[in-house]
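Dear U.,

For the methods section draft, I wanted the exact inputs and outputs in one place so we can describe them consistently. I've listed the two proteins in the order they'll appear in the manuscript figures. Please don't edit the token lines directly; just add comments below if something needs changing.

First protein:
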Amino acid sequence: MDHDGVLREFDRQMREGARADGLPGVRVERAGAVVRAGGSEHDWHGVLWSAPDLNEDAADAAIATQIAHFRSLGREFEWKLYGHDRPVDLAARLLAAGFSAEPTEALMVAETEALTADVELPEGLRLLPVTDAAGVELMARAQERAFGADRTDLSARLKVQLAEAPDRVSAVVAMAGDTPVSAARMELPPGTEFAGLWGGGTVEEWRGKGLYRALVAYRARIAAARGYRYLQVDATDMSRPVLQRLGFTVLSTTTPFTYRPQAPGSSGSPGARG
């Protein structure tokens, strides 16, 4: 894989050239030195891309402008910072402006066709395509057990996607009888070479049995049939070794920096967790 060439195309197609996902109210727009996205309360709000020539003098002004914009909307938002973004101290500038850093993940990419082979499931398990609200609820049950976190916003967003733009998302849940034990989804942005793998999670007692690999292969086959050349994933420290064994390559890192507007009458610096 041409590491630098694929990273350039990822930045061009998925960040600078990002498009709205076709859902009502979702917006992606160029605003000076950044590309930002937003929509309803359940949609993702934040900065997807910043200009590669953003310098120290312009960075603070760009940060302040985005804080003012999302504050005016009453929205918490995320600045999705990549390891190769400039200036080199952009992370420190975001922290100084009141953002909180989430754990850093690895931006990983693989050739789709290399991952389409069938994977044998453990006995008693089956993969169920998620196509409606009932399927989303099954996904949420599996992921809440896997991650120990509420999935309300993601579930609400996925229900709208399946209803309004089903060709741009694919989701699957692994069932042990009537119990959901693993789930994942894939974003299929039109006009790009990259399909995005998201949300893969397996409940603890079913880990280490090949389910993660099976869900990757399931989605790879769909992406290949739709003409996507690459699979892209933001990998945690837990999933990165598994993905490397499957053939994924690290292109960069990505760190979410979250800004939470200060509640009226509260004290502390803007964006503090409180």
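Second protein (the one for the lower panel):
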Amino acid sequence: MLRVEGNDNAIIFYEREDIVKATANFDKANIIGEGAQGTVYKATLYVDGIATTVAVKRCKEIDENRKTEFLQELVILCRVSHPNIVKLLGCCLQLEAPVLVYEFARNGTLQHLLHGRPRRHPAVSLATRLRIAVESSRALAHLHNPPHQILHGDVKPANILLGDGWVVKVSDFGCSTIDDSTQVVPKGTMGYLDPEFLYDFQLTKLNDVYSFGVLLIELLTGKKPLVKERKNLTAMLHVSLGNGTLDELLDTDIVGEGSMGVIHQAVELASRCIAIPGETRPTMQQVAEELWRLSEQVPERAPPPEDLEGRGFMDTVTTLSYGYTTGESETTGFYGLESNAALSIEYAR
């Protein structure tokens, strides 16, 4: 096991045997997330001599083009330390494809909380939704502020993990860049992508603000950004604001709480986040401060929804999103990649 110190985080290069043992040789019974780009396993590894539950992500094989993204992921997460950003504990490069080790977020994703929970479960209160919005916006503001200047590039509920007490852990930096960077092809997720980004593929902080605005609307309405009949959520919001039917668009679970003034202010903030042109949008720091002010007006009188751990967690959570993901490609040898990764982490200092 090799430990490499970054600015804020120590990244551990695990041995192949450690990962194989922790996952019981990648036993299917330990899978907590699976998709076309990789598989996530619940595992137990020793971190600083303490047995710790972690999420082990086994990526698909990568080629030279994906190698740069993998190294950038290490650089970014070495630079960042924040309670609302998922922590990369380490990696293993001695397998056919990279394995990444993250802190374990046992309550799945915001995507699952909003759209995957059975209706019989308790409603998610306005206070909980605002707290999630506050913590997510604070994480993004931290990324945007010097000396980090990191642009996330794919803000969406599926990339908002929920840990103990439903604390937010922003994840998935596969589309991220360090400082403004012109991109050849669009990255991100349709429905959350800023239309202005599609003009020149120049990722900026304001693109993240737009995506967060869509996420905030989703939190308040309970609706996905792309809906049936070729309508999208942002267009529906503009129409409802124009004809006075906003309350009909809102999630019925929060309409009856008696805090309509706060909800309307949150919607107004979301509408400013998705404003065109982008120069008129608030910064993520301003968004975080305003959301905090609103959340203070709606104290959380009841505990968050019951934690998923211990009551059919494996059956409940179908997809978790932990950091970097890769597409299918040919196998890459681990020796050169491990050396480059160590150098990249050193550069991040």
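Candidate sentences for the figure legend, describing the second protein: The chain has a mean pLDDT of 80. The chain is about 40% helix and 15% strand.

Thanks,
Y.
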